[in-house]
Amino acid sequence: MMEGTVGAYEADDIRGLVDRILRELGNPEPPLRLPEVRQLLALDLKYYSLSNPTLLQEVAHRMKVAGKQVIARPTILIDVIKKANLSALWIPDGNRILIDQQVPDAKKRWIEAHEVGHSFIPWHKDFLFGDDQYTLDPNCHANVEAEANFAAARLLFLQGRFACEARDVEITFKSIQNLAKRYGNTITTTLWRTVEERDGETPAFGMVSAHPHHDDIGRDPGGKDVRYFIRSPAFRTRFPGITQEFCWNFLRASAGRARRGPIFDGTVVLTDANGVRHEFAIECFCNHHAILTYAVHRRPAPLITPVK
User: Fold this and answer.
1) Which one of 3.30.2020, 3.40.1620, 3.30.450, 3.40.50 gives the CATH number of domain 161-300?
2) What is the dihedral of CA 193, 143, 32, 22, to 10 degrees?
3) How confident is the model at residue 239 (pLDDT cuts 50, 70, 90)?
4) At residue 133, does pLDDT exceed 50?
5) What average pLDDT does the segment 138-144 reach?
6) What is the pLDDT of residues 196-233, one digit of tens each?
């Protein structure tokens, strides 16, 4: 799948939309309650089952855009969901969010917030249900999905509030777990936001991967070792040569065999774009579903003086 981008203008617009939502909710304390967001936006939420497609057939039968029915055969919606392997979708007609009831509970909060994002980003209705050459372009769809993810993150982590709170604590997996619980989000999404938003000026990276010693933990459905490789803005700029393959090979060589809990806690030396070596603190943790890695810049690596 293509990796979409969020343009600067689009990001500013989405931040403004999220600001308005949070303001109308009274600037709530974490965790954000999505039912209150749905009530504010007049969104309906239903769960569907592909094994019992009655709800999907009913929705497809009623779907209209600009007053015209858009699906002549109701089962087409089911075919689209299966072909695209969708877990959820937002239907503008009726302002309804549909989520596959087979989605694990831990993932439903993020998926719901993603679809909420589609619903309040005004240009998404045209992109998701348009049929011209531009809206059907794969790059366009990837960007639309990236924008919905951006909106979900701004909502669930209450704009910049999470980053401020994260900067006030030393980041370990214990503190990431505490922040995840406070904001009501998964450890994986909390790790992601910690890397990208805690301090954009400090090089840091995160990784969600398989366990190098246990094939039944964390492997991508497509067989890939690394699911996500997350980098702070400073890391992207200063360490462009450090790839997910390098980090995976380090994990393979360094990780312990435990199936749960810490599997590595130490340092790694990385070379920046100017050839300067830097020391990073790195911690790897197994939550039984995947290996979560967090690394943050500590200092320039000490010079090694040869003994004469």
Assistant:
1) 3.30.450
2) 110
3) very high
4) no
5) 85
6) 999 999 999 999 999 999 999 999 888 899 999 999 99
What residue spans in the chain does CATH classification 3.30.450 cover? 161-300
CA gap 305, 308 in Å, rounded: 9
Q: Which class would CATH give 8-156?
A: mainly alpha
- pTM metric for this prediction: 0.87
Rg (CA), the chain: 22
Query: The tokens 């360490």 sit on which residue?
Result: 239
CA dihedral for 40, 41, 46, 48, sign (positive or negative): negative
Contact 135, 126 (CB under 8 A): yes
Q: Are 98 and 56 contacting, i.e. CB atoms less than 8 angstroms apart? A: yes
Q: Tell me the mean pLDDT in the region 51-57.
A: 74
Q: How far apart are CA 89 and CA 128, in angstroms?
A: 10
Return the structure tokens found at 96. Answer: 């309804």
Classify the C-alpha dihedral 222-227-233-235 as positive or negative: negative
Residues of the chain with CATH 1.10.10.2910: 8-156
